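Posting this for the archive.
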Amino acid sequence: MDETRTLTVDDHPAGGRGDGEPVLVVLWSADEPWRTGEVWRLQDGAVIGRGQGGFVRTRPGRDEPTAPLANPRISREQLRISIEDGVPIIDAVGRCPLLLDGRPVGSCPWVPGAQLELKGQLLLLCDRRAPLPAATGGRSPFGEADEDGIVGETAEAWELRRQVAFCAPLDAHVLIHGPSGTGKELVARALHARSRRSRAELVSRNAATFPETLVEAELFGNIASFPNPGMPARPGLVGAADGSSLFLDEFGELPLGQQARLLRVLDDGEYTRLGEARARRADLRLIAATNRPLDALKEDVLARLPLRIQTVGLDRRRADVPLLAAHLLRRIARDEPSLGRFLDARGWPVATPALVGALVRHPYTTHTRELAALLWEAIRRSTDGRLDLWPGYADDVRAGRGAPPAVDPRELTPEQIREALERHGGKQEHAWRELGLSSRHALGRLVRKYGL
């Protein structure tokens, strides 16, 4: 029997941003999966149902109306919207049962982060939609990757596109910062591809992979047999990037002393190869990326990275998760054609609303990497040619199974590790679990690295 569940805009666990107007976003549709990402703007007296218009594709500066719902299992008048004290109220008036976060209801308030399902037919997210920033660059088909590989239709995705378009043609050095798995390398490649240096190949390296004793040789190069006998001469990354862009991922992993040695390169391109007396110059643009707090970087180095682009996690753009999942699954099917059976004829995932809803709610820490791992787990567990929420999913998430470790070890500072060890009396068996690492051995490696 249906029940009316009372909620307020403050007590829903999913929460939501406080900016933007209240909307409903399509997360999944049984008959019309191409509607994923479309928006319904909530207005007093509006009706959602078969044959009713109202869903739009929001693009910068305009709404693009789409065809009315055509699903025959949805009533002509299925949901009715009313506004009470500024809060949208959603009443189920059609024959298809309405579920709020999986529970049947007859009426409910709009609550940011909540999921509404017309049982087995349509899954909607209660979200806020801020005005999209001004259009920049080329236009891609709705919901698909643009020319830079960026996927998403939320204000956050369009703001990222705006930042890339603004920074790319400039020649100042850039810092990209944000959590792991939020597309920092994608942004770096877009910045280079749109710059005046695009004819030259992008030079890139993960700074965390530099051997501790050879950081300077890696960056600035060396003459033959210096600093070690038999070592070949090489130009170093700075020399190789002359006329191009140098992308240093995990820039925050560089020791502060080594960061300081980049100051002259950042100022005027001057550097010296190891074992060589004369100075050289390189015309390069540094694109640095880090998932560490900005205060982890040396201040005078940070001052020489005047252009800043922040990437945000999936917790800030949950309405984009189904579009990202579709993009990742298409890429999986491209590399593994036998897995194309999990896509329909138009390239949309063959998935249940239960799985899509869980992916949207998931507490991401490594973001798109974690989303990809969850999709692989759903593929592995599928028995009937569709992707579904597997038994024990919630337990797997709590235990860290079926997804990458909750925390990238490189994101932890020595202070965080030391404090966790102190709280547990030095017992690594308890501390590694609190820190969210994959095992006690991962903590042991960090303890040895930092001399704790």
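Residues 12 and 54 are 26 Å apart (CA to CA). Residues 314-411 form one domain.
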